[in-house]
């Protein structure tokens, strides 16, 4: 029997690919936002992140920003470009993206944390969700990106592992 290319084969391929990609992630991990979403409930996302952090003995790396923020895009691109740093983040932290935008400022949620003066902003939380450190990302910048040496040092310092 020969399988002919067509819509059915494409659907089967997409379903199998989705199952393979999702196999290493828990349901909760897939439930966390991969980008800043104004429709998300930040408090619910934090509870998921804390649960995952406790299970994996990690800390929570909360990044506050929005689609409007060019430095938020630079940070995403930086982590994608530096696979060693991206790997370190995922090995030592549960990454939580929290939206701040005109559509949803998350004022009640963010009022529990130190004032944010620029975006993106990083809060490091322990596995129980307690704030350990609040970081303006400007000190991590270099040119139109971030400095790999400074970023690695920052992430290592607050990982609780080294």
What would a concise description of this structure say?
With 162 residues, this protein is of the alpha+beta class. 46% of the residues lie in helices and 18% in strands. It has one domain: Glutaredoxin (3-Layer(aba) Sandwich).
What key attributes describe this structure?
single chain; 162 residues; alpha+beta; Glutaredoxin; 4-stranded mixed sheet; two-stranded antiparallel sheet; 7 helices; 18% strand
Architecture overview:
The protein is α+β, with helices and mostly antiparallel strands and 162 residues long. The chain has one domain: Glutaredoxin, CATH 3.40.30. Helices cover 46% and strands 18% of the residues. It contains seven helices and six strands. The strands form two sheets. It has a four-stranded mixed sheet with strand order 2-1-3-4. A two-stranded antiparallel ribbon has the order 5-6. Strand 5 and strand 6 (145-146) form a beta hairpin. The protein is globular and about 35 Å long. The model is unreliable at 6-28 (pLDDT under 50).
């Amino acid at each position: 029997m020969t399988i002919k290319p067509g819509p059915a084969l494409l659907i089967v391929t997409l379903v199998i690919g989705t199952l393979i990609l999702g196999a290493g992630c828990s349901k909760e991990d897939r439930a966390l936002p991969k980008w800043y979403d104004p429709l998300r409930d930040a408090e619910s996302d934090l509870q998921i992140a804390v649960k995952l952090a406790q299970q994996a003995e990690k800390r929570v790396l909360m990044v506050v920003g929005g689609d409007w923020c060019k430095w938020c895009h630079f940070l995403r691109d930086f982590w994608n470009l530096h696979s060693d740093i991206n790997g370190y983040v995922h090995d030592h932290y549960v990454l939580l993206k929290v939206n701040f935008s005109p559509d949803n400022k998350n004022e009640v949620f963010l009022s529990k944390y130190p004032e944010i003066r620029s975006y993106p902003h990083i809060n490091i939380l322990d596995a129980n969700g307690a704030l350990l450190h609040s970081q303006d990302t400007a000190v991590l910048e270099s040119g139109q990106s971030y400095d790999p040496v400074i970023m690695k040092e920052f992430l290592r310092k607050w990982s609780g592992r080294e």
